[in-house]
Amino acid sequence: MGRITEDLIRRNAEHNDCVIFSLEELSLHQQEIERLEHIDKWCRDLKILYLQNNLIGKIENVSKLKKLEYLNLALNNIEKVENLEGCEGLTKLDLTINFIGELSSIKTLRHNIHLKELFLMGNPCADFDGYRQFVVATLQQLKWLDGKEIERSERIQALQNFPVIEQQIREQEKAYCLKRAKDKEEAQRKLQEDADEGKKERSQPGFDGRWYTDIGAPLPSSVESKDLQAPEIQEGECNRKKVEDEEDDLEFWNKPSLFTPESRLETLRHMEKQRKAQEKLSDKKKKVKPARTLITEDGKALNVNEPKYVRLDFSLKDDEKRKQVVLDLAVYRYLDTSLIDVDVRPTYVRVLVKGKPFQLVLPAEVKPDSSSAKRSQTTGHLVICMPKVDEVITGCPPASKPVASTLDSSRERKTERSRHTEKLEVDPSKHSFPDVANIVQEKKHTPRRVRSEPKITPTEEDPDFEDNPEVPPLI
């Protein structure tokens, strides 16, 4: 059965960024909730609260919601209107299809002066004679009842006949309460019988599913599973149990029952039991699928195209101009990119789409570190560009061989150079080589200090002139 937890409220508060203390609208319908709790402490600012189609049996823990304007409790197990006096701002209350038989309990709504709309259709009290007149006269602040507007003349007439109508309502309430007490006793007796029957089944010998030897000791589980429980026997037992469950289910739904809170709870428990049995049976039949082989034992990569629904279309291009390999993978257009994982290796590329592998062996060795993956915003395709490795690196020769080859080549060059030098002839009579000595002599220059340059002799007219014979002449 469901309970109101903080996690449940946060999951239903996505429109408020999962913040619950400032939440103004909350929807907790169809959660199999049996009790109202925690809402008045965690969500004080609530204005709209949807709790329809649950199993709530009592209105409680909502009196502190001062700002609450609309409360929907339709399709629940509520039998009495109570604990709503603190909801000062309540303007609309929906109690459609519940089990309210105490119509006089609506008198507690007199404190909700802002209440304008009330829905009580589908409750036992709605079948009472004088039901509408009693509600109209009791709650004079109402404007609408069960979707029908309350006219002024209708309220005046209801107030005039209120003493008689109130007496009728009390008598009908008393009769309903007696009938309801009998229904509760019958439901309690039936629940006790079912519990006793379950205990008897559990007390039968062999119920624990273990086989025993002659001396009473249980056999090992390995012996049970291998020797005694053959696959044919297991399959026959599963089929027999399935047939019995189907017969019990058919008997349950064909059995007549009253529409009471207990019958609703019984129906829910039966459906939950059937669901668990189905899950258990499916788990037994479910076989674990072996993992897909992507790399063989000898290290060879395989081509794999195994998405979840249909195989992915792709195109692989070898771009010689840009020296790269381009993979265009037709990923689902509206698939979230966070569900795609790309892994580029030197000889193959692997793409996981929602956990399903797509692997393709590449025609040439590529550089994983320089590769890039982009997604088209129009088609959703995944484009992976993988630069190819240079031809020198592709050969991958041993490290010793290139050293030896370079040494050999250098030696060959030296020998060739020496041979070529031996064959040179420098005889000037045979060849018209210029005379190096003459060239040097032609271009030989005298030192600057030997060069004859006009001597600068100072004149006596210069006021700073001083004739010192020890000082050599200037060049």
Topology at a glance:
Layout: H1 6-11, E1 25-27, H2 39-42, E2 48-50, E3 70-72, E4 92-94, E5 117-119, H3 131-138, E6 144-145, E7 148-149, H4 152-160, H5 162-203, H6 221-228, H7 231-254, H8 261-285, E8 304-305, E9 314-319, E10 324-329, E11 340-344, E12 348-353, E13 356-361, E14 372-375, E15 382-387, H9 391-395, H10 400-422, H11 436-442
Parallel strand pairs: 1-2, 2-3, 3-4, 4-5, 5-6
Antiparallel strand pairs: 6-7, 8-13, 9-10, 10-15, 11-12, 12-13, 14-15
Helix pairs in contact: 3-4, 3-5
Give an overview of the whole structure.
With 475 residues, the protein is of the alpha/beta class. It has eleven helices and 15 strands. It has helices at residues 6-11, 39-42, 131-138, 152-160, 162-203, 221-228, 231-254, 261-285, 391-395, 400-422, 436-442; strands at residues 25-27, 48-50, 70-72, 92-94, 117-119, 144-145, 148-149, 304-305, 314-319, 324-329, 340-344, 348-353, 356-361, 372-375, 382-387. The chain has a seven-stranded mixed beta sheet with strand order 1-2-3-4-5-6-7, covered by helices on one side. Strands 8-13-12-11 form a four-stranded antiparallel beta sheet, with no helix packed on it. Helix 3 links the parallel strand 5 and strand 6 (144-145). Residues 209-217, 221-229 and 392-405 have low confidence and may be disordered.
